[in-house]
Amino acid sequence: MSHLLAFKFFQLAKDEGMMGQDFVWITAYGLTDIFDVVGSPALDVMQGVLGVKPHVQDTVELQNFTRRWRKKHRLENPGTSLSEPTVSGLYAYDTIWALALAAEETRYNDSNFVSVTNNGSTDFERIGTSKAAEKLRGTLLKTNFQGMSGKFQIQDMQLLSSKYEIINIVGQEKRVAGFWTPEFSISGNSSSMAELGTIIWPGGNKTPPRGWMLPMNKTLKIGVPVKPGFAEFVKFENGIAKGFCIDVFEAVVRELPYNVSCNYSEFGDGKVSKGTYDDLVYRVYLKEYDAVVGDITILANRSKYVDFTLPYTESGVRMLVPVRDQRQKTAWTFLKPLTTDLWLGTGAFFIFTGFVVWFIEHRTNKDFRGPPASQIGSVFYFSFSTLVFAHKERIVNNLSRIVLVVWLFVVLIVQQSYTASLSSILTVEQLQPTVTNLEEVIRKGSYVGYLNDSFLPGLLKRLKIDESKMIAFDSPAEYNEALSTGKVAVIVDEIPYLKVFLSRYCQNYTMIGPTYKFDGFGYAFPRGSPLTPDISRGILKFASDSKMVELQKTLYGDMSCPDKDDSQISSSLTLHSFQGLFIITGASSMLALILHAVITVYNNQHDLSSDNSLTSWRRWLAIISKLFHEGDSPNTPDKDELAMANVDSIIESPLSIPNHVIERLDSGTDTGSLPEVEGTADRDLSVQDAEPTPSAYVHSERGHNGVASLSRSGSSIRRRQRIME
């Protein structure tokens, strides 16, 4: 449109209030230079308007041309407000210059142009052209030179401009807010990437407008339910709507690409509601409200009259029940940390380990010898004393030491596990729900509580709960009183309400049972409202934002209150838990037992092959019994072992008879004294033989053979003495 028509257009827009806040006006270049043509009146009616115009580089030639133009324009148009040539004027100047260059190149002549008319007809199709004119046109389109407006070049019948300025009308001036270039697109600088300057929008606002407004530009009347029991979701304070539902709605509305003005109206007098939630939703259908914002559950019967947004809370219905400590402390509580199979298995390994150590140590260690009853007692005492690491017996065999080290490690693990489990039983409460499912409630005929003014009675009836067993409550405090006094066995309610309740009474109650699926809380709008999809998309975006997490923390609190179920109750330790340890200690004990038997048989193999008088199995049984009961000398010999060594030396050398025996043999001089000498020698030898032998050799055949050999040696010495005399 022309500049004068455009000026009139913006005057009318301003009169209609369309040059104020939340409006955006963007003009193409055809109107951007209206400010140069019309002057300050145009600036007054176009505040905040954005426009674009080609960017003209300020050169020396342009400055000289501008001075000449001003001088001539003032002489020809006195009183005009135009102070410099517009970009359109520069384009016109360059176009005439290009036409002149094209005419010179084609040597254009007026006589070459022939006009054909038909009886005065004005039909343009009857106008003819000459070949020279066509050549002139072609040359003009190919003209390329540096003009006053910049590089002059025509492409696709359009004059090209490589750069554009973004103009913002502020006050009585035109501000350059940025540029558009092929290299950097929209930028604050024509030669580099930079942020745009501050833009003042219509109405003087620096915040970018949302783009468009609601039809009829009216304020929405929002219905808000009355919820005195759970005021955390929605409430009115001094005429102002507050709560989780209101905060989420306003946060979503702020992110919409347009402005939504709302006026909240309470559906009640602050304490008592005017009707049920279904009545409130139906008021939207009757167009008494433009929307309903609150803890409105999305239900199929309600969706017949309104459109719901996507839910903004956790959905579902669960049961709330009391919890109690199921573990009773009795006189036998100390047995509960371990199961029966673990007690029996541990005891069996105690006895087995004691037997292995006794078997290995019996032949070499006097602490493990003695009467059968004493040895049996040693086995039990030694094995069970390892439980408190109080065993006193000295271990001299390396195989026994290996068995004992492995067993002590197992005992340490079992002991620490037992201590930890017993401490947990005695000090930690093992809380379990008093009711696990609704079938149990129905079977016992218990009462069920629910939230007043909700859809839950219909759900409970479908779950086969007798209507006479239902009791309605209004607040978390009433929930607590009813459950603690046993007035009801369970409370059935939506998960958001139960979470608010547990944020106050977490220690004594828990949510259990299956989750009955419902769609959660949503906002209700009239059917077909354009706000419904926009609010739904906003909810999806806001649900993943950190602000939503902060609002939920404000609603439910920071206290963590996990569900208490059977999986959280610690059970007794089982044999399977220590199966690996028992396999290790059993294998090491059995291996040590086998190695000890093999080594013992190998060291006494000459005894196994010496006696062939008995049958096979009796011979082997006797030899094994002999080897087991016959002791070996340990590394440090005791007094019995030293005495045995002296006897062996006498047996090996008959000349090593004590001196008093030799002296008595030498005292006799005639044959008459020989009987006396013989008797004396016999007595001396009998005294020598009467010395006690070590206990380890009481049953040894080798000891008796040594004494007989000693007697035979004494008789031989006496015969030699008689011959010499």
TrEMBL record:
It comes from Brachypodium distachyon (Purple false brome). It is found in: Membrane. Keywords: Glycoprotein, Ion channel, Ion transport, Ligand-gated ion channel, Membrane, Receptor, Signal, Transmembrane, Transmembrane helix, Transport. The gene is LOC100836491. This is Ionotropic glutamate receptor C-terminal domain-containing protein. It is a multi-pass membrane protein. The keyword Transmembrane helix applies. Its main location: membrane. GO terms for molecular function: ligand-gated monoatomic ion channel activity. The keyword Transport applies. Glutamate-gated receptor that probably acts as a non-selective cation channel. May be involved in light-signal transduction and calcium homeostasis via the regulation of calcium influx into cells. Residues 678-725 are annotated as: Disordered. GO terms for cellular component: membrane.
